[in-house]
């Protein structure tokens, strides 16, 4: 388990971490999710020991590591731009942390072969980094980080520089790897889909603070505030309340809409609206609407529901939030934690210092 307690960090006058407290359970895959500049990397680097905190503590498995250098924290770190040693083969890059610890060659070979198998690079042992694809290089980076049996694996946008398809493949692969290796993993990402897909817990950051921590389902269905609701999925403002476009039901008949709406707690009510546009998006259909109040919002329907309604521009419909809608749950605590290359070669040396 990693415990960050009231971590505070300034860069000059700028407050990057504002008394952040967070518990990361042992063996979990936790995502730090938030917009650019929210402090995700700063928090991750503080756990790694790559940033010094102004105040607050970091504990890993019960050991206070706040004043320990990175190499004594028992961590493996993978950066977005992995700076491999270009003159070394894949085998030697992965073996680096073990070689500098002077482990016997036989032990190193066994370990490296095992890791290359786990990351799917068995046949690439003798290649050089320049002979790998971006995705393969990041997998090599993960193997190198795992080589020294870290207690904690810290990943800073590890797939950020890769194209969308490779990114999606690698996150599925990361999830499988984590199920196999079970090392406590913290993943920084600004991509909500990536976080929802791979993490078992998500901490949402905003302006140096944690807005909410929880499992993906809770954050999506019961966000603690409008920020979390908006950051984890699309939103529409209907009757002054935030709803997910796919939670909006459209009905042609006012009485039917009112009767159905009576069954829904915390409903924003039934909104009379005019259809402005009907857009087919593959399987789904987006209906752009204008309420009587002038408010614009969009509902997302399945094609079947849209076909059934047979909507056209200028027609009147009655919109309401469906029964199991995502709504902001203001009772949820904002934080689940307890109180209280510049030059690439230099970068490689710095990264290797952690290994
Ligand atoms: N070394 C530094 N010196 C000065 N300001 C910094 C430094 N590192 C980060 N910052 C600032 O601190 C804030 C948080 O940065 P951080 O990298 O933690 O954000 P982030 O959420 O990881 O963003 P991104 O997704 O863009 O990487 C940003 O406003 C950034 O400009």
From TrEMBL:
EC number per UniProt: 7.6.2.9
GO cellular component entries: ATP-binding cassette (ABC) transporter complex
Protein name: ABC-type quaternary amine transporter
Record-linked PROSITE patterns: ABC_TRANSPORTER_1, ABC_TRANSPORTER_2
Pfam families given in the database record: ABC_tran (PF00005), TOBE_3 (PF12857)
Superkingdom classification of source: Bacteria
InterPro entries in UniProt: AAA+_ATPase, ABC_SmlMolc_Importer, ABC_transporter-like_ATP-bd, ABC_transporter-like_CS, Mo/tungstate-bd_C_term_dom, P-loop_NTPase, Sulph_transpt1, TOBE-like
Keyword line: ATP-binding, Cell membrane, Membrane, Nucleotide-binding, Sulfate transport, Translocase, Transport
GO molecular function, one term: ABC-type sulfate transporter activity
The organism of origin for this protein: Terracoccus luteus
Domain ABC transporter: 2-232
């Amino acid at each position: 388990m990693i415990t960050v307690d009231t971590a505070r960090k300034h860069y000059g006058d700028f407050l990057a971490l504002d008394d952040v407290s967070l518990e990361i359970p042992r063996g979990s895959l936790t995502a730090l999710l938030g917009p650019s500049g929210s402090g995700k990397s700063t928090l991750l680097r503080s756990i790694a020991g790559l940033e010094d905190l102004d105040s607050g503590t970091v504990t890993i498995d019960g050991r206070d590591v706040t004043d320990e250098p990175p190499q004594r924290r028992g961590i493996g770190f993978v950066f977005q731009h992995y700076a491999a040693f270009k003159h070394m083969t894949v085998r030697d890059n992965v073996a680096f942390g073990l070689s500098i610890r002077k482990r016997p060659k036989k032990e190193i070979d066994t370990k490296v072969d095992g890791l290359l198998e786990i990351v799917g690079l068995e046949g690439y042992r003798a290649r050089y980094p320049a002979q790998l694809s971006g995705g393969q290089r990041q997998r090599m980076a993960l193997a190198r980080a795992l080589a020294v049996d870290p207690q904690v694996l810290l990943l800073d946008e590890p797939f950020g520089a890769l194209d969308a398809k490779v990114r999606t493949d690698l996150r599925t692969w990361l999830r499988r790897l984590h199920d196999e290796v079970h090392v406590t993993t913290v993943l920084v990402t600004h991509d909500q889909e990536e976080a929802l897909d791979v993490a078992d817990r998500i901490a949402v950051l905003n302006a140096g603070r944690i807005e909410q921590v929880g499992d993906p389902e809770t954050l999506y269905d019961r966000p603690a505030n409008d920020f979390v609701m908006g950051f984890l999925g699309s939103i529409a403002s209907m009757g002054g309340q935030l709803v997910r476009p796919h939670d909006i039901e459209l009905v042609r008949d006012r009485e039917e809409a009112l009767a159905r709406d009576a069954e829904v707690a915390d409903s924003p009510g039934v909104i009379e609206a005019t259809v402005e546009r009907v857009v087919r998006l593959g399987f789904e259909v987006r209906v752009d609407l204008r309420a009587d109040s002038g408010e614009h919002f969009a509902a997302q329907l399945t094609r079947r529901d849209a076909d059934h309604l047979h909507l056209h521009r200028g027609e009147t419909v009655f919109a309401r939030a469906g029964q199991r809608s995502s709504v902001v749950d203001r009772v949820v605590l904002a934080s689940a934690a307890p109180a209280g290359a510049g030059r690439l070669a230099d970068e490689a040396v710095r990264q290797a210092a952690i290994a």
